[in-house]
Amino acid sequence: MEEKEDSKGIVDKVVNDLSKSSITKQMLVGATAGWFTGFITVRVGKAAAFAVGGSVLLLQVAHHQGYIKVNWDKVYKHVDKVADKVEKEATGQSPKWMEKV
Protein backbone atom coordinates (compact mmCIF):
# COMPACT_ATOMS: atom_id res chain seq x y z
CA MET A 1 0.00 0.00 0.00
CA GLU A 2 2.85 2.36 0.81
CA GLU A 3 4.46 1.66 -2.57
CA LYS A 4 1.27 2.72 -4.33
CA GLU A 5 1.11 5.94 -2.34
CA ASP A 6 4.83 6.56 -2.94
CA SER A 7 4.45 6.02 -6.68
CA LYS A 8 1.43 8.31 -6.76
CA GLY A 9 3.45 10.92 -4.91
CA ILE A 10 6.32 10.52 -7.37
CA VAL A 11 4.01 10.89 -10.38
CA ASP A 12 2.35 13.95 -8.85
CA LYS A 13 5.74 15.46 -8.09
CA VAL A 14 7.01 14.87 -11.63
CA VAL A 15 3.84 16.31 -13.18
CA ASN A 16 3.94 19.36 -10.92
CA ASP A 17 7.64 19.91 -11.65
CA LEU A 18 7.03 19.52 -15.37
CA SER A 19 4.10 21.93 -15.37
CA LYS A 20 6.34 24.58 -13.82
CA SER A 21 9.14 24.10 -16.35
CA SER A 22 9.56 25.76 -19.74
CA ILE A 23 7.32 25.09 -22.71
CA THR A 24 10.26 23.62 -24.61
CA LYS A 25 10.90 21.04 -21.91
CA GLN A 26 7.19 20.19 -21.71
CA MET A 27 7.06 19.69 -25.47
CA LEU A 28 10.20 17.58 -25.43
CA VAL A 29 8.86 15.33 -22.67
CA GLY A 30 5.49 15.06 -24.43
CA ALA A 31 7.08 14.22 -27.77
CA THR A 32 9.33 11.62 -26.17
CA ALA A 33 6.42 10.02 -24.34
CA GLY A 34 4.36 9.99 -27.54
CA TRP A 35 7.19 8.46 -29.56
CA PHE A 36 7.75 5.77 -26.93
CA THR A 37 4.02 4.98 -26.78
CA GLY A 38 3.85 4.74 -30.57
CA PHE A 39 6.95 2.54 -30.69
CA ILE A 40 5.51 0.09 -28.14
CA THR A 41 2.10 0.12 -29.86
CA VAL A 42 3.66 -0.73 -33.23
CA ARG A 43 5.65 -3.60 -31.70
CA VAL A 44 2.60 -5.04 -29.94
CA GLY A 45 0.43 -4.51 -33.04
CA LYS A 46 2.89 -6.35 -35.27
CA ALA A 47 3.09 -9.25 -32.84
CA ALA A 48 -0.71 -9.45 -32.59
CA ALA A 49 -1.13 -9.29 -36.37
CA PHE A 50 1.49 -12.00 -36.82
CA ALA A 51 -0.24 -14.22 -34.24
CA VAL A 52 -3.71 -13.78 -35.75
CA GLY A 53 -2.49 -14.16 -39.33
CA GLY A 54 -0.41 -17.21 -38.43
CA SER A 55 -3.38 -18.80 -36.70
CA VAL A 56 -5.64 -18.25 -39.70
CA LEU A 57 -2.98 -19.64 -42.02
CA LEU A 58 -2.44 -22.67 -39.78
CA LEU A 59 -6.18 -23.37 -39.63
CA GLN A 60 -6.46 -23.07 -43.41
CA VAL A 61 -3.59 -25.51 -43.96
CA ALA A 62 -5.05 -27.93 -41.40
CA HIS A 63 -8.43 -27.74 -43.15
CA HIS A 64 -6.84 -28.28 -46.56
CA GLN A 65 -4.88 -31.30 -45.29
CA GLY A 66 -8.03 -32.82 -43.79
CA TYR A 67 -7.07 -32.47 -40.12
CA ILE A 68 -10.12 -30.35 -39.36
CA LYS A 69 -13.51 -29.96 -41.00
CA VAL A 70 -15.36 -26.65 -40.97
CA ASN A 71 -19.15 -26.77 -40.69
CA TRP A 72 -19.85 -23.80 -42.98
CA ASP A 73 -23.62 -23.94 -42.43
CA LYS A 74 -23.07 -23.42 -38.71
CA VAL A 75 -20.59 -20.60 -39.39
CA TYR A 76 -23.02 -18.84 -41.74
CA LYS A 77 -25.89 -19.15 -39.24
CA HIS A 78 -23.74 -17.72 -36.45
CA VAL A 79 -22.52 -14.84 -38.63
CA ASP A 80 -26.12 -14.12 -39.64
CA LYS A 81 -27.22 -13.99 -35.98
CA VAL A 82 -24.35 -11.68 -35.07
CA ALA A 83 -25.10 -9.42 -38.06
CA ASP A 84 -28.76 -9.23 -37.00
CA LYS A 85 -27.74 -8.35 -33.45
CA VAL A 86 -25.36 -5.64 -34.66
CA GLU A 87 -28.02 -4.18 -36.96
CA LYS A 88 -30.55 -4.17 -34.13
CA GLU A 89 -28.09 -2.38 -31.83
CA ALA A 90 -27.15 0.13 -34.54
CA THR A 91 -30.61 0.95 -35.88
CA GLY A 92 -32.84 -0.02 -32.97
CA GLN A 93 -34.92 -2.43 -35.04
CA SER A 94 -34.47 -5.97 -36.28
CA PRO A 95 -33.97 -6.61 -40.00
CA LYS A 96 -37.09 -7.54 -41.94
CA TRP A 97 -37.46 -11.12 -43.16
CA MET A 98 -37.54 -9.89 -46.78
CA GLU A 99 -34.09 -8.35 -46.35
CA LYS A 100 -32.69 -11.74 -45.40
CA VAL A 101 -33.89 -13.54 -48.52
Automatic annotation (TrEMBL):
Subcellular location per the Swiss-Prot or TrEMBL entry: Mitochondrion outer membrane
Topological category with respect to the lipid bilayer: Multi-pass membrane protein
Cellular compartments per GO CC: mitochondrial outer membrane
Main location, first listed in the record: mitochondrion
Chain segments annotated as coiled-coil in the UniProt record: none
Keyword line: Membrane, Transmembrane, Transmembrane helix
Biological processes per GO annotation: autophagy of mitochondrion
InterPro entries, per the entry: FUN14
Pfam families the UniProt entry points to: FUN14 (PF04930)
Family: Belongs to the FUN14 family.
Protein name: FUN14 domain-containing protein 1
Organism encoding this protein: Timema genevievae (Walking stick)
Source organism phylogeny: Eukaryota, Metazoa, Ecdysozoa, Arthropoda, Hexapoda
